[in-house]
Amino acid sequence: MTVKDLFIQKGLQRMLIDRFLEQELRRAGYAGLDIMRTPLGTRITIYAERPGIVIGRRGMNIRALAQKLEKELGIENPQIDVVPVEKPELNAKIMAQRIARALERGVRFRRAAFIALRQIMEAGARGAEIIISGKLTSERSRYEKYTAGILFKSGKPAEECVDEAVAHALLKPGVYGVKVKIVLPKPHPDDIGIKEISTTEEALSSSQIEGTKK
């Protein structure tokens, strides 16, 4: 197997594991995973909004999950760690799943979008965008977009500062799509700051100015 094929195989395996965990841990607020090979097997770190649901009573859920990963996906000796997400409102996948679950409970799509948008901005995000698509008000599919703050669409800021995720909700009219973009509170190249000058630097700069005047 070539190096190229090995990278493709690892990427496909990660995608399958991610989709499997997203379906199994939807109620737990699944937010992502990390995979690392160890001499003992495969260590999988799961990030979730509610780790207690992932672990289960006396670890029953996490043991059943490890067995499914080994049998259905062929993961060698999976060892699962669960890490809670510090600020769920700044995680696009968690917020997209929240909106999707709210829609499935019967909450109106505009109300669900505005509540999520407010929670994201109150958590400290610099901006956010929520797009809900489907048969919203009629038999014809369309979408509605809700935005707040600033949003980077292209370039390096969009790659480094924007978290993006998609979730789906199954309702009677059909499948609704929920797309969430969150601008994380990270430093940006366009940020302008004021540098404080110390007393020695101020005295040095004033003496230089006086020297140029002479």
Give an overview of the whole structure.
The model has no long low-confidence stretch (mean pLDDT 85). Strands 5-4-7-6 form a 4-stranded antiparallel β-sheet. The protein has a 3-stranded mixed β-sheet with strand order 1-2-3. Helix 4 packs antiparallel against helix 5 (109-122). The chain is 42% helix and 28% strand. The chain is built from 7 helices and 7 strands; from the N terminus they run H-E-E-H-H-E-H-H-E-E-H-E-E-H. The longest helix is centred in the N-terminal third of the chain and has 22 residues, at 3-24. With 214 residues, it is an alpha+beta fold.
Helix count?
7
- Our measurement of the CA-to-CA distance between the termini, rounded to an integer number of angstroms, reads 75 Å
Helix and strand composition category: alpha+beta
Poorly predicted residue ranges:
none
What's the arrangement of strands in the largest beta sheet? 5-4-7-6
The helix-strand sequence is HEEHHEHHEEHEEH
Total number of strands: 7
**Rg to the nearest angstrom?**
24 Å
- Report the biggest beta sheet as strand number plus sense, adding barrel if it closes: 4 strands, antiparallel
Query: What is the strand content?
Result: 25-35%
Estimate percent helicity. Answer: 40-55%
Kindly report the oligomeric state of this protein.
single chain
- Can you tell me the overall shape? globular
How much is the average pLDDT?
85
